[in-house]
Amino acid sequence: MSSALERKKISRKRRVFRIRKSLKGTGKKPRLSVFRSNRHLYAQLIDDENSKTIAAYGTLSKEITGKKSKENAALIGTKIAEMAKKKKIKNIIFDRGRFKYHGLIAELANAARKAGLQF
Question: pTM above 0.90?
Answer without folding.
Answer: no
